[in-house]
Amino acid sequence: MNDKENDHVLGFFLNQKSCSIAKAEGIYLYDDQGNRIIDASGGAIVCSIGHGVKDIADIVAEQMQRVAFVFRRAFITPELELAAQKVCGTTNADMDRVFFVSGGSEATETAVKLARKYHIDNGNSGKYRVISRWQSYHGSTMGALSWSGFTSRRADFTPYLKDFVHLPATYCYRCWYGESPESCDLQCAQALENEILCLGPETVSAYIAEPVSGHSLAAAHPPDEHFKIIRQICDKYDVLMILDEVMSGIGRTGKWFAYQHHDVVPDIIALAKGLSAGYFPVGAAVLREKIYDVIANNSGIFGSGHTYGGNPVAAAVTCGVLDYLKENKLVDRCADMGEYLAAKLQTLRAHPTVGDIRGRGLLWGVEFVKDKATKACLDPQLHFSQQIQDQALRRGVHIESSFGCNRGQKGDTLIFGPPFIITEKQIDDLIEIIDETLSAVERRAGI
């Protein structure tokens, strides 16, 4: 076939051909020419247990033969109930109920819908507003994109989005309040109370945030006390606290959930990605018992969901992945390998363009700058981080790049999220290739 006959996939980039992956095993991808690639970002921070785990593949095959689909409005399955039990178990009983969906965008939208339904059934139907933050990302569907603050991903679709409130980003390297972590009094957290009062507490339903950011701010996270203040404010004004752990949940930060670093309990958690480790499309909104009780004891209905939500194959995969993580102590391993990755990343600070390195567990970001002293951004026309991604792939590493961390206008970053099974030697190989790639891209840019 010629290229035209073999080119019918509408991809992310329409004018360039994507690498075709024929096989994946462990932390490696293999293209259709047999070249080996380190999956340094675990896809899009998804593949926590590694590629090609036969135990999980067998679960998929067995479940498909037993029952591949039932519609959740009419039925549940034993696998779905077991998956919900296992998910709640990983929260140390902080959470009590799980509404399964097919991915992260559905999970965040479901969380917001649950908050709305809770307030309606609690006699507060005027509470509908959602407060989020600039430079956040909660998904690509229209609702999730509306409360996302990732401006570059919102731009083309802004006319279709609802007008939700966005607070300044929690971004210590470029604090929007001009403070530093050593001296600030967490104005970024205090701002929530001011916004609730300005909007009217009787209108505010929920606050949604990422405990560790994804591509929009490349693993930036606030100080540990931040979410304690947020929790107090939400309780004061009967606002539900939703944490988007689509990327950070299920062990990625070295604990089962990133909120556990902050010693708080949210009202609702949005999950996906690591929930199935990439073996099947699945997401979930996980909620506290008090949310469920209010809805169950009043209307008794949560009329939301999509055709494939609660799919029995997805549920079986979720059970298998959670068991695999526990049996192989991979969350603890994530914490250990995260410390090693963090130390190796620090060696990149020798480069003139490396401005900041931040993260938790095996979720880390590197931000590049033109000037370390002033934190001036590189010229967007350089496409600096995209060049690193492209050049690293040629050298055998897949790494996710992002642009727009500085108010959506400038700012180049990379985000690391390899499988938890990665070894120290593999981290050494990964950093060596990134180091070489960065040097090459800097030379090309005249830096």
Q: Assembly type of the shown chains?
A: single chain
> Shape, please?
globular
Number of helices: 13
Q: Strand order within the widest sheet? A: 4-10-9-8-7-5-6
Tell me the structural class: alpha/beta
Q: Major β-sheet, in short?
A: 7 strands, mixed
Strand content: 15-25%
* Low-pLDDT segments: none
Question: Would you state the CATH class of the largest domain?
Answer: Alpha Beta
Mean pLDDT rating: 96
Number of domains: 2
CATH topology of the largest domain: Aspartate Aminotransferase, domain 2
CATH architecture of the largest domain: 3-Layer(aba) Sandwich
Short account of what is shown:
With 447 residues, the chain is α/β, with parallel strands linked by helices. 35% of the residues lie in helices and 17% in strands.
Write the layout of secondary structure elements.
Layout: E1 21-25, E2 28-31, E3 36-39, H1 42-45, H2 54-66, H3 78-90, E4 97-101, H4 104-121, E5 129-133, H5 142-147, H6 151-154, E6 165-167, H7 187-199, E7 204-209, H8 226-236, E8 240-244, E9 268-271, E10 283-287, H9 289-296, H10 312-327, H11 330-345, E11 354-360, E12 363-368, H12 384-395, E13 397-398, E14 400-406, E15 410-416, H13 424-444
Helix pairs in contact: 2-10, 3-10, 4-9, 7-8, 11-13, 12-13
